[in-house]
Amino acid sequence: MLKLLTAQQTHQVDQYTIINEPIRSSDLMERAAKAFTKVFIEKFMDRKNSIIIFCGKGNNGGDGLAIARLLLDEGYTLIQVFIADFTEKSTEDFEHNLDRLQLKEAAISNLRSSNDIDIQQADVIIDALLGSGLNKPLTAEWEKLVKKINQFPGYKISVDVPTGMPCEGELFNDSIIKSDWTITFQRPKLNFLLPISSPYIKEWKVVNIGLNENFIQSTSSPYYWFWKGDVQNYIKARQPFEHKGLLGHALIIAGADETMGAALLCTEACHRSGAGLTTALIPESGLRALNTRVPEAMYCSKLSFLEADLEKYKVIGIGPGLGISEKAVELLKMVLTHFKKPIVIDADALNILAKHQDLITLIPQNSVLTPHMKEFDRLFGEQESWWQRIENAFKQATKLKVFIVLKNRSTMIFTPDGICYFNSSGSPAMASGGMGDVLTGMITSLLAQRYSVEKAVQLAVFSHGYAGEQLAQKMYVVPATNLIKQIPFVLRELLPK
């Protein structure tokens, strides 16, 4: 699992690596430039591509100068370097790499202002102006130059971070390079994982530059990025004498007469994710559909539920398509009052909580709330930005002692212990109705199977996205019904070899 860092922490890791490897800072810069150049060449193999490289006079600019030299060595001859000479100061590593590039008799021009350059034609534009150290908005010539570069035709690549974008925190303004591809060093930046980056980064790739991983792991950070290899350590192989009674009984409470589809998706996802027994509490009008779609699932009427022994259920998932009627409110209140094991709360159950805030205090510890952005804001108050949501999610998860799954392209899992896990799997092809209902069923199922809450949520979120990734290789849009069918195959693939 990768620990994610702020810009300041990344700088600290740089300095630690330089001192303790030991390695000269210029040699670490060379390592970064070589890592960048390697993946660049893999994508742009034609040495006849024309390339413009914009460099500032700091270390990001030094990266750009080193990249220019390495590309010249690799046979790319149509390279023009522009140095934004807007400040008197330059770093030692910038000057070192400028001297080395000048020995190549490279085409280098200094820009005293943004007016010194007109719109340029090039196949590739590389942005190495300012990098990750930015802590204030661009102004004056920097702002003008960025806006001008954004008008250039050609494929734009940023070195480490698009110029004008902070690594974390609110964006200062929209004066940011709009990169087609950002090649970033050692770790993705936190803002890359949030929707605020989408106008400025179409695609990004992490390259390893050999920073000291032991020091990174010792650094205090609440942010982690989890991958396939992490959840493979969690998943349990079925044992020879296991039977359905040992694999948990899950109850899904979902659906209304006009929204039965959500209940069926959630129930089927729960069954296909491996729960030993799955019972669905749905309106009687959906019984025929349930028997047709998920014949393995059992049915529970609301009347029989009132008389049921809730202890037989390991977990309850509630909310998809439930509606917000008075009967739905009463049902949720009864569950929260009488069921003290973890509950997976989604969709309309979240909307009910938003309207009846007194019920929030009844949520059992270690329950799982799975809001999307609008549901989160309805539940915890209107947020002005994604960073406000993150701050509030940390607060609410620790205060309520619950897990909050804030659904997004890179879904975030907030824990009662104050940790935020970013999911690495998923595809834009999954942007279709019913995906949240499926995820709720998966989380509920894994909790029934005696996974810890943290592992169940991570495994469900990753598997959900991974199934979508696999289907997106063959499908333009991934419907929720198709994703459900993929679940058993994905879980089988994730079993430790």
Q: Which consecutive residue ranges, at least 5 long each, have pLDDT under 50?
A: none
- What is the helix fraction of residues, given as a range? 40-55%
Structural class: alpha/beta
Major β-sheet strand ordering: 1-9-18-17-16-15-14-13-10-11-12
Strand content: 5-15%
Domain module tally: 2
Mean pLDDT: 96
In brief:
Its EC number is 4.2.1.136, 5.1.99.6. The chain is α/β, with parallel strands linked by helices. It has 2 domains: 2-221, YjeF N-terminal domain (Rossmann fold); 229-494, Ribokinase (UDP-N-acetylmuramoyl-L-alanine:D-glutamate ligase, 3-Layer(aba) Sandwich), CATH 3.40.1190.
Helix and strand layout, with pairings?
Blueprint: E1 2-3, H1 7-20, H2 25-43, E2 51-55, H3 59-73, E3 79-84, H4 92-102, E4 107-111, E5 124-128, H5 140-149, E6 155-159, E7 181-185, E8 204-207, H6 213-218, E9 223-226, H7 228-232, E10 249-253, H8 260-272, E11 277-281, H9 287-293, E12 298-300, H10 302-306, E13 315-318, H11 326-338, E14 343-345, H12 347-355, E15 368-369, H13 373-380, H14 386-400, E16 403-406, E17 412-414, E18 420-423, H15 435-448, H16 453-472, H17 480-494
Helix pairs in contact: 2-3, 3-4, 8-15, 8-17, 12-13, 15-16, 16-17
Give me some keywords for this one.
NADP; eleven-stranded mixed beta sheet; 17 helices; 2 domains; UDP-N-acetylmuramoyl-L-alanine:D-glutamate ligase; EC 5.1.99.6; alpha/beta; 18 strands; NAD; seven-stranded parallel beta sheet; Rossmann fold
